[in-house]
Amino acid sequence: MGRYILKRIFSSVITIWFIMTLTFILMKSIPGDPFVSERAMTPQVKAAVYAKYGLDKPEFEQYLTYMTNFLKGDFGVSFNRIGLTTQDIIKGGFPYSLKIGGWASLFIIVVGIFLGIIAALRQNKVSDRTVMFISTLGATIPSFVFATGYLYFFSKKLGWAPSFGVGSWKHFVGPVICIGMFSLSYVTRLTRTSVLDVLQQDYIRTARAKGLSEFVVIGKHALRNALIPVVTYIGPMIAGIVTGSFVIEKVFGIAGIGSLFTTSILGRDYTLIMGITVFFGIFLVTAVLIVDIVYVLIDPRIKYD
Amino acid sequence: MDDYKKISPDMWENLDKSQKDSEKVSRKSLTYWQDAARRLKQNKVAVVSLIVILMVVLMAIFVPLFWPIQYSNQVLDFSNIPPNLEVYEVTDGNYIYITKAYKAIEVSKDGELLQMSEIKKDDQNNRMYIYEFDGKELIVDYSLYLQAKKEYLALEKKAKKDPSINLEEAQFNLDNAKKVEIRFDGKEILPTKTIRNKTYVFGTDYLGRDMFIRVVYGGRISLIVGFVAAFLNFIIGVLYGGISGYFGGRVDNIMMRIVDIIGSIPTLLYVILLMVIMQPGLGTIIVALSITHWLGMARIVRGQVLSLKEQEFVLAAKTLGASTKRIMLKHLIPNIMGPVMVSVTMQVPQAIFTEAFLSFVGLGISAPKASWGALCNDALAGLFTYPYQLFYPALAISITILAFNLFGDGLRDALDPKQRK
């Protein structure tokens, strides 16, 4: 098992290295350089600027500087707005995104598992069909449609929810629900399938034959095994929440890292885009790695290869 | 021993040839695809989804050919006109519609937009527009909203000192306050009735472009992106997975490790990066989606090829001297088409989804072209005032993606060999 974990850590490091290199290559493949479109510069000024940002050095040396800067935690500076660094963006926006993402994860896991169990226990009955129908809608309707619909009905028509910004808990209800809708549907379906699968196992029949109450059979014997596939989905779920944040934060006017990222995309702020991309990449790869390790720890049956 | 002799010889007479199969119990044997089609037809949800998909595709292809209005036509006079018009009858049979910008538009009895009325006098001090009909004055008085807004702002100031004031409620009241009063010939008039907009069935956007044709046209773009990206993914995935699975061993190991590494990169981030670096446009979106979304396909194909290549028919083909290319194209690939088709069907909505996402973030198709995502993005700013502009493209995208997913589910069930009877 230790070997497996080491192997996973090693492959995650490779992936992060790959992401950083790919980002560097893409950054270099943009025609011209950050200063090419600026007003005409005298050769001296140009040379000075290039020297300041290290652009006069050979590409490989630039690559090494870039990598070491990342290792030191320096994610680069904005070249549209003077003095703004990627760290500022991350520090400013990430707390909001983390708050929304954290609550959304909790919401997805609790509600998704609950609905999945209900659907499985009442297979092919009305409640099952309703849950499955809603989860189909949830998986197919884009999150921006959900978010705008939510705003329209709950802010405009009913006046229950504030329409933008952050403040009281009311501001977070909409973003959390809308960001989680897709993954919620997925978790619901996953739980339903896996509970149905587990309920047919022999040990469940044994548990029932022993005369255990249905609550104990489901809660203690069935769920423990049924929820293992759900754990594996947590990695992709985090990725879904991160990308969801690009749209949701834009719709709800929250200055989280997702909306700051989209703003820098629209402003073609290349260095910032690259910095945030690498940050997201590292974040996601690490999250998946942690989930994988936890998975190994809780499921003794896993094959380590 | 000689019992057979007891049977009289006339019982051994030959039957007529036509009666040869009279005792045989059989039905026509179905091929894999015929059987799948039969099961697919029994699945009502899948059939309805297929019909919806076909309708959307046909509309996207043919409606722009004969629709009188171009998707890029702008009629600024008729900007932001909703599909349902609340009209005022000013004189007998003469209807007007007051836009959200307090302009009067003359409407025919059955809902065709005629023209924008000429403003007789723009009284900015009293916040009213004055028009003339039949020699009488029609006054559009929009001072009410400003009054309400002033009160709200005053309340907001007070709320800073006195936290007990409920600002949210005040905001809500402000949003739903009566904004405009229409007076004709000195008397206030109320909307007579609500009629469907006959000129623009889905209304118009902020530049006075027909929303209906824009949604249809956006469907064209979204569907092109969906189908082409799915097709390219199919080609890349089948070739990559096929080669990896067929050669196996070290080749397979290296090729699949590459897939693993690419797979662990958050693809959407890289689609975004590619979109930033390349010139935005239809081609770029398709390329960006194609080079990041083929991994799933490659994995499926590889798995299938790995198990199929050990079977006897491949050995037979090899013994007969068939080339690698021939074995791949004629023997292996046709046999893995089932799962691959399901995967292709699922790729289409995913590509549409991603394109909508990119356009919504602002990285997609640029104006005057439009995809569903771009239309939704355009409409976002005016969501509270012109919700219909968001409703139609959102509905179109949701229905299409839903139909593709349900059809894909049906196809998967139909092609599942375990369900074969």
TrEMBL record, chain A:
Gene3D superfamilies: MetI-like. It is found in: Cell membrane. Belongs to the binding-protein-dependent transport system permease family. It holds the Pfam family BPD_transp_1. It is a multi-pass membrane protein. Keywords: Cell membrane, Membrane, Transmembrane, Transmembrane helix, Transport. Residues 94-295 form the ABC transmembrane type-1 domain. This is Oligopeptide transport system permease protein. InterPro entries: BPD_transp_1_N, MetI-like, MetI-like_sf. The chain crosses the membrane at residues 9-27, 100-121, 133-152, 172-191, 230-252, 272-298.
From TrEMBL, chain B:
The chain crosses the membrane at residues 45-67, 221-242, 254-276, 282-301, 332-353, 390-411. It comes from Sedimentibacter acidaminivorans. SUPFAM superfamilies: MetI-like (SSF161098). CDD domains: TM_PBP2. It is found in: Cell membrane. It is a multi-pass membrane protein. Residues 219-408 form the ABC transmembrane type-1 domain. The keyword Transmembrane helix applies. Belongs to the binding-protein-dependent transport system permease family. This is Oligopeptide transport system permease protein. It comes from the Bacteria. Keywords: Cell membrane, Membrane, Transmembrane, Transmembrane helix, Transport. InterPro entries: BP-dependent_transpt_permease (IPR050366), MetI-like (IPR000515), MetI-like_sf (IPR035906), OppC_N (IPR025966). Pfam families: BPD_transp_1, OppC_N.
